[in-house]
């Protein structure tokens, strides 16, 4: 078995948004939305990114596609470094990487028909004839389960789930290798969510796609992802294969996050020992010193308030950024020897 | 024991219709339910199932036109809320019945301090002086777990985080010791960790204050954790109703069953593929003469197309509106 290669490599990505203030409107600080994250996404896999709102997961997704100009770091997609290339070069690379947005209502132009929405990337990146484009549009509509007869209708005539299908067809138009799905199901009803997730999975198999799946819905991420990264206040605190992450979380934040998910079974729900985090997420413009999670962590130690823990491989393929685990490792080693 | 107590709120055959261009939308169709003292009733359904409209109809919160509450009775004690005049109703809202809305940012007024907004119902409904109202506000904010309450009264809503704002909303709803608290998707806009905080808070408040709560949500996980009884709505109707444990263990309506199956699990084996409910929710253009779930139902037969099923008891407080007998399948 040969190991699949990394399609996307992100190294030390930082995305700081400046804050201007004072009389002269000088920069007085920065919102550190993403503050040094590194990860790989292997070809054909789905990397789930989870975290609470404001943790930087969407910013991270957008920065990876260079929809934001990253403050620092390198992004390599399919062998090309896209972080430094010029806008024109970047435009040439766009067909490889696409995005599905959260709100299908806001991301589709209400004045364009479905055919022109799905065909827009083709107009931009190909010199195909009108006939060929229309064929491709129909093909895409079939692929995402939209009726061809609706090609000349406007987005308002569709339900939320169908609109999300239009968004997906549009992202697929240029045969991308990599798609960032930014909360693609958050705006949909439960019964429709399952339809869209199944569609994404089918398309992945059919076209060999690689996904970065950003969501706050942990149970859905558990279903769709191969590996999961948990973000907190701009950094990845844990990165692991999905099974390991959900069965044996190593970071206290992941533990708390998992235990906060309501259990849809009353008999289990009553006996569940819930870890309720106190307080709110600190402001990313003024993160606490040391570990970002030290203000809410129930297992906080002295070192956590001084030094920021690094993301380390604790078990094969299972990374966590926590001093607790570093200590475990040390004591474990001496104890075992 | 609790069952014998008179219900605090008793809703019978409620029908609400919206008049829109080119017709009507029958958003709520003959909804009946009751709420017993100290009970937490969970109401589940998709968007458009009529769960919010039902609750807003009770309190006359829907703008009319286009909305029109056509039929039904809503008994709060011995008063019918659909018959009382606007002044009485205004006193009941925020007085006997407190309301918590989904989005704490849009439901708090951004130009008034939080203190002003908590004191408003106290002064209007309870006739308190400013000083009394302020003391009571501090008590309320303490109760819902906002630290440094007295100082924070002077803060504006934007100075609070989402979870804190929802706590403020709960404090306002609790201000006049309501008999009934209606919470409309109160945690949907919040993160899971903050949601967990609010759920703990509500469990705690129930024990302390003992009011009855109606909790509207689309998240079955939330319901499983806090409700005593669950009512499932679909297409403007109640399709199933029962005690929480029984309903989750032995759901009788195909819609309830499908809803429970579509949810991915956090534990156990991962499903190869998610179960889906095919199709779309119904358009409610007219008063339904057939079962609203018919087109998406795996068990529908001829009778479902000609007759809208009535709710039938399944024993022990559990009832379902479906022609199909779910026990057949298990045999």
Mind explaining what this structure looks like?
The complex is a heterodimer of chains A (337) and B (331). Helices cover 35% and strands 24% of the residues of chain A. Chain A has helices spanning 57-64, 87-93, 104-107, 114-125, 130-143, 160-172, 190-207, 218-224, 242-247, 252-260, 266-271, 323-336, and strands spanning 6-21, 26-42, 46-50, 72-77, 80-81, 97-100, 178-182, 210-214, 227-232, 235-241, 312-315, 318-320. In chain A, the strands form two sheets. Chain A has an eight-stranded mixed β-sheet, sandwiched between helices. A four-stranded antiparallel β-sheet of chain A has the order 2-1-4-5. In chain A, a hairpin with a 2-residue loop joins strand 11 (312-315) and strand 12 (318-320). In chain A, 45% of the residues are buried. Chain B is α/β, with parallel strands linked by helices. Helix content of chain B is 34%, strand content 22%. Chain B contains 13 helices and twelve strands. The two termini of chain B are 34 Å apart. The interface between A and B is large, with 43 and 45 residues.
What's the SSE blueprint?
The complex is a heterodimer of chains A (337) and B (331).
Chain A: E1 6-21, E2 26-42, E3 46-50, H1 57-64, E4 72-77, E5 80-81, H2 87-93, E6 97-100, H3 104-107, H4 114-125, H5 130-143, H6 160-172, E7 178-182, H7 190-207, E8 210-214, H8 218-224, E9 227-232, E10 235-241, H9 242-247, H10 252-260, H11 266-271, E11 312-315, E12 318-320, H12 323-336
Parallel strand pairs in A: 3-8, 3-9, 6-7, 7-8
Antiparallel strand pairs in A: 1-2, 1-4, 4-5, 9-10, 10-12, 11-12
Helix pairs in contact in A: 4-5, 4-6, 5-6, 6-7
Chain B: E1 9-20, E2 23-35, E3 40-44, H1 51-58, E4 67-76, E5 79-80, H2 86-92, E6 97-100, H3 104-107, H4 114-126, H5 130-143, H6 149-152, H7 162-174, E7 180-184, H8 192-209, E8 212-217, H9 220-226, E9 229-234, E10 237-243, H10 244-249, H11 254-262, H12 302-306, E11 312-313, E12 319-320, H13 326-330
Parallel strand pairs in B: 3-8, 3-9, 6-7, 7-8
Antiparallel strand pairs in B: 1-2, 1-4, 4-5, 9-10, 10-12, 11-12
Helix pairs in contact in B: 4-5, 4-7, 5-7, 7-8
């Amino acid at each position: 078995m040969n190991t699949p290669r990394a399609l996307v490599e992100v190294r030390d990505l930082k995305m700081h948004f400046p804050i201007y203030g004072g009389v002269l409107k000088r920069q007085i600080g920065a919102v550190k939305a993403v503050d040094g994250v590194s990860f790989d996404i292997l070809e054909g896999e789905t990397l789930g990114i989870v975290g609470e709102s404001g943790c930087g997961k969407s910013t991270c997704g957008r920065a990876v596609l260079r929809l934001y100009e990253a403050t620092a770091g390198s992004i390599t997609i399919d062998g090309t470094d896209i972080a430094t290339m010029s806008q024109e070069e970047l435009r040439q690379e766009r067909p490889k990487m696409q995005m599905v947005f959260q709100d299908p209502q806001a991301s589709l132009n209400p004045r364009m028909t479905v055919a022109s929405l799905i065909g827009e990337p083709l107009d931009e990146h190909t010199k195909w004839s009108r006939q060929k484009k229309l064929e491709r549009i129909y093909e895409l509509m079939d692929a995402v389960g939209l009726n061809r007869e609706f090609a000349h209708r406007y987005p308002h005539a569709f339900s939320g789930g169908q609109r999300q299908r239009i968004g997906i067809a549009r992202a697929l138009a240029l045969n991308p290798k990599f798609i960032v799905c930014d909360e693609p199901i958050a705006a949909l009803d439960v019964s429709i969510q399952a339809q869209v997730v199944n569609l994404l999975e089918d398309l992945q198999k059919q076209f060999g796609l690689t996904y970065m799946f950003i969501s706050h819905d942990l149970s859905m991420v558990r279903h769709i992802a191969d590996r999961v990264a948990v973000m907190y206040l701009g950094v990845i605190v844990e990165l692991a294969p999905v099974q390991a992450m959900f069965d044996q979380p190593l970071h206290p934040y992941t533990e708390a996050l998992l235990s906060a998910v309501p259990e849809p079974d009353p008999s289990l729900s009553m006996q569940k020992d819930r870890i309720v985090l106190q307080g709110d997420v600190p402001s990313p413009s003024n993160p606490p010193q040391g570990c970002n999670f030290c203000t809410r962590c129930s297992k906080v130690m002295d070192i956590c308030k001084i030094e920021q823990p690094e993301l380390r491989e604790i078990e094969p393929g299972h990374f966590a950024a926590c001093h607790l685990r570093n200590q475990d490792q040390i004591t474990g080693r001496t104890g075992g020897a | 024991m609790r069952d014998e107590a008179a219900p605090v709120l008793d809703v019978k055959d409620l029908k609400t219709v919206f008049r829109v261009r080119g017709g009507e939308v029958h958003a709520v169709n003959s909804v009946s339910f009751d709420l017993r003292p100290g009970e937490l009733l969970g109401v589940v359904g998709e968007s458009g199932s009529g769960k919010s409209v039902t609750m807003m109809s009770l309190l006359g919160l829907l703008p009319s036109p286009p909305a029109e509450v056509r039929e039904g009775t809503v008994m709060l004690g011995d008063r019918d809320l659909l018959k009382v005049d606007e002044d009485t109703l205004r006193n009941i809202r925020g007085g006997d019945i407190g309301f918590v809305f989904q989005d704490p940012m849009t439901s708090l007024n951004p130009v008034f301090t939080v203190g002003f907004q908590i004191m408003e119902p106290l002064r209007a409904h309870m006739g308190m002086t400013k000083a009394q109202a302020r003391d009571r506000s501090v008590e309320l904010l303490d109760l819902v777990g906002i630290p440094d309450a007295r100082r924070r009264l002077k803060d504006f809503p934007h100075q609070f985080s989402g979870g804190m704002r929802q706590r403020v909303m709960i404090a306002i709803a609790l201000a006049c010791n309501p008999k009934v608290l209606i919470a409309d998707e109160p945690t949907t806009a919040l993160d899971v960790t903050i949601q967990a905080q609010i759920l703990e808070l509500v469990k705690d408040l129930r024990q302390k204050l003992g009011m009855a709560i109606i909790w509207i949500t689309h998240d079955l996980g939330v319901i499983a954790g806090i409700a005593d009884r669950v009512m499932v709505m679909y297409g403007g109707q109640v399709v199933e109703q029962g005690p929480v444990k029984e309903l989750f263990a032995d759901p009788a309506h195909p819609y309830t069953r499908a809803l429970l199956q579509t949810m991915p699990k956090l534990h156990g084996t991962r499903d190869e593929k998610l179960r889906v409910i095919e199709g779309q929710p119904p358009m409610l253009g007219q008063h339904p003469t057939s079962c609203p779930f018919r087109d998406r139902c795996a068990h529908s037969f001829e009778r479902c197309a000609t007759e809208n099923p009535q709710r039938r008891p399944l024993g022990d407080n559990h009832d379902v509106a479906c022609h199909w007998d779910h026990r057949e399948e298990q045999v």
